[in-house]
Design goal:
Helix content is about 40%, strand content about 15%. By secondary structure, the chain is an alpha/beta fold. Bound molecules: SN-glycerol-3-phosphate.
Length: about 220
């Protein structure tokens, strides 16, 4: 996957659910076409198929379980996500953490077996380094939980976290997130060595998401 990447996590925002998820994903596709930058979206499981059918940008799942084919009810199996059109999955987001690293490892393994890219979240640079060393995901996304959904970005308030993460987690690709809202935030992150950003509310709560996306692209 080409980097730097701007990956928007749609979470369960109403503005990013169902038909609106398609609309918002199309705004990303249009921003990608207009700017030539790499946008991707992480949508709810039930929206993967409709979104991936509607746009030509990478679609991620927001979570993947360690389920296998067979007698297992209600789980998000990696192969199903892949067949629905996801090219990758976020794992271990701070809003959906695995109960322990053993469960995380199983889910990463399953995702890889199904051919999904893995973007594993960590709350600190240290945790990111541990995850990277132990499980070799494609991306490690470092997000300080206290800044998620807020107005202060990781780029402006914790730039040292970005450089520490890059130093500790490389050569794995590091994404950073929490409070990222504009091109300046993206520029700081990428200048410090991050391969992109993971963000949500800056786009999902925007009155004009497309203009925010164009601004984000200016820093990539
Ligand atoms: O997964 C992205 C995320 O947790 C950051 O959210 O709203 O701070 O951009 P937000």
């Amino acid at each position: 996957m080409k980097t730097p990447i701007i990956l928007t996590n749609f979470k369960t925002y109403e503005s990013a659910t169902g038909a609106k998820a398609v609309e918002l994903a199309k705004a990303h596709e249009s921003a990608a076409q207009q700017t030539g930058k790499n946008f991707a979206v992480a949508v709810q499981t039930a929206d993967i198929y409709r979104v991936s059918q509607a746009v030509d940008i990478p679609v991620f799942a927001q979570h993947c379980d360690d389920a296998v084919y067979g007698s297992h009810t209600g789980w998000n199996m990696a192969e199903t996500l892949k067949q629905a059109g996801a090219i990758g999955t976020i794992l271990n987001h701070s809003e959906h953490r695995f109960v322990d690293y053993q469960s995380l490892e199983k889910a990463i393994t399953r995702a890889k077996e199904a051919g999904l890219l893995t973007c594993v979240c960590a709350e600190t640079a240290q945790e990111g380094a541990k995850i990277s060393k132990s499980f070799s995901p494609d991306f490690v996304a470092v997000e300080p939980p206290e800044l998620i959904g807020g107005d202060i970005s990781v780029s402006t308030s914790r730039p040292e976290l970005i450089s520490d993460s890059v130093a500790m987690i490389s050569p794995a690709a590091v994404l950073v997130g929490a409070g990222v809202k504009n091109g300046k935030d993206v520029q700081i992150a990428t200048k410090l060595g991050a391969k992109g950003v993971l963000l949500a509310s800056g786009v999902t709560k925007a009155s004009d998401p497309k203009s925010v996306l164009i601004d984000l692209a200016s820093g990539a």
